């Protein structure tokens, strides 16, 4: 499974591509950050994020895109930019028919470190260890993008089985009792 992880942001949008399957060593195929100038017009910033993500999609051809689920932050301005960049990532994937998975920050931290309250440094250290890298990816947005991809690879099989079970239950429930 090849996953493009996106840590959305307007100033720095982390991007990371990881390949592998749950229970096996994973491989980092690429990591980086799409940057936009804070003083640029919002529409131009969103366009730059879109172009950056499209380049990563062209180059790495992921099977899935994992995006950090935007959650309420104290700074409304920050959460708005994050949500807009997140929407751009989802749009780019949808345009190509690539499934998108949203993962919460605590879900990603728990998957990678074992604790949903892990600090950024802990996440970076575990990403470095899990992908057998020489040093943690910088900035933290890049490491977070890789963590999103890792989280998806590890959790997707279980989520898929759960969705299939729910679908089977729904089919049986609509058929009613057999006579």
Automatic annotation (TrEMBL):
It is an enzyme of class 3 (hydrolase). Mg(2+) 2 binds at residue 68. InterPro entries: RNaseH-like_sf, RNaseH_sf, X-over_junc_endoDNase_Mg_BS, X-over_junc_endoDNase_RuvC. Its EC number is 3.1.21.10. The lineage of its organism: Bacteria, Bacillati, Actinomycetota, Actinomycetes, Kitasatosporales. This is Crossover junction endodeoxyribonuclease RuvC. Belongs to the RuvC family. It comes from the Bacteria. Binds 2 Mg(2+) ion per subunit. It comes from Streptomyces nogalater. The active site is at 7, 68, 141. Pfam families: RuvC. The RuvA-RuvB-RuvC complex processes Holliday junction (HJ) DNA during genetic recombination and DNA repair. Endonuclease that resolves HJ intermediates. Cleaves cruciform DNA by making single-stranded nicks across the HJ at symmetrical positions within the homologous arms, yielding a 5'-phosphate and a 3'-hydroxyl group; requires a central core of homology in the junction. The consensus cleavage sequence is 5'-(A/T)TT(C/G)-3'. Cleavage occurs on the 3'-side of the TT dinucleotide at the point of strand exchange. Mg(2+) 1 binds at residues 7, 141.
């Amino acid at each position: 499974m090849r996953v493009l992880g996106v840590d959305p942001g307007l100033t720095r949008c982390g991007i990371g591509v990881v390949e592998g399957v749950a229970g096996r060593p994973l491989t980092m195929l690429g990591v980086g950050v799409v940057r936009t100038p804070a003083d640029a017009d919002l529409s131009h910033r969103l366009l730059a994020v879109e172009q950056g993500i499209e380049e990563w999609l062209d180059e790495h051809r992921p099977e899935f895109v994992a995006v950090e689920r935007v959650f309420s932050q104290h700074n409304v301005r920050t959460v708005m930019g994050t949500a807009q960049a997140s929407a751009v990532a989802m749009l780019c994937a949808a345009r190509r028919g690539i499934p998108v998975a949203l993962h919460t920050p605590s879900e990603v931290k728990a998957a990678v470190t074992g604790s949903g309250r892990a600090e950024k440094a802990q996440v970076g250290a575990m990403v470095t260890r899990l992908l057998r890298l020489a040093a943690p990816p910088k900035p933290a947005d890049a490491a977070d993008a890789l963590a999103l991809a890792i989280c998806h690879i590890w959790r997707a099989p279980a989520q898929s089985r759960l969705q299939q079970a729910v679908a089977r239950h729904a089919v049986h429930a609509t058929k009613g009792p057999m006579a």
